[in-house]
Design a protein that fits this description.
By secondary structure, the protein is an alpha+beta fold. The chain is built from 5 helices and 12 strands. The strands form 3 sheets. It has a 7-stranded antiparallel sheet. A 3-stranded antiparallel sheet has the order 1-11-12, with no helix packed on it. A hairpin with a 2-residue loop joins β4 and β5. The protein is globular and about 75 Å long. The relative contact order is 0.18.
């Protein structure tokens, strides 16, 4: 088994290091975050850091890299208070990944890919049309991570749109039916299959030892 000490990691070649560390945590969510500026410029970008923070209230978080360069998603959601989260599915992985390219503010990723924006009542930000799960998000707060300058953005789900064929009787959304993708590292995409559910677990009663 290969072993890397903290010193080894620090001294790795840059691309090798970011690939190694971005993939060692396991598969990550694959989402497109849609936003819009105050003057109506649309933006959509791929994120692999969206995570569940709680169900009551329904909160999701995602991490932003340091704002030492322009971060259009962040600037837009701070200006308007709203953004959208849209699940990446198998048929759009290549186009979705291209949104990681760095375009100028006046160029919308919707215009340079085959992705299409759409709007729904009560949300100023654009959704990604045909995404099987779409979430309207309202900015709540943020936390600065001092260790590396990243930002944890917290948002409240104010609207949830789900293809109704994906929802199980107990409320679970079966992502595999929609071929929702996951991200391995920075640029590896996989489409997981749901094989088994184990249900809510309770402590076992241990047999007394003789």
């Amino acid at each position: 088994m290969a072993y890397f000490s903290a010193e080894d990691i620090q001294n790795l070649e840059h691309i090798y290091k970011i690939n190694l560390i971005n993939s060692c945590s396991g598969y990550k969510s694959a989402n497109l975050i849609g936003s819009i500026s105050k003057d109506g410029a649309e933006n959509v970008a791929v994120f692999s850091s969206v995570t569940h923070l709680g169900s009551s209230p329904a909160l999701l978080g995602f991490f932003l890299r340091p704002t030492t360069v322009a971060r259009h998603t962040y600037e837009n959601l701070k200006a308007t208070g709203y953004y959208t989260i849209n699940h990446i599915h198998k048929s759009i992985t290549e186009e979705a990944h291209h949104t990681s390219a760095k375009y100028e503010r006046d160029t919308s990723e919707f215009d340079v890919t085959t992705l299409t924006s759409e709007y729904k009542p009560g949300c100023i930000a654009p959704f990604v049309k045909d995404a099987p799960i779409q979430l309207a998000m309202q900015y709540v707060e943020e936390y600065n991570i001092k260790a590396n300058g990243t930002i944890l953005v917290l948002g409240k789900i104010v609207g949830l749109y789900v293809d109704d064929t994906l929802i199980e009787d107990d409320g679970l959304i079966d992502l595999s039916k929609a071929q929702v993708a996951a991200i391995n590292g920075l640029d590896g995409y996989a489409v997981p299959e749901s094989k088994v559910r184990y249900g809510y677990q309770r402590p076992k009663t241990l047999a007394a030892k003789s």
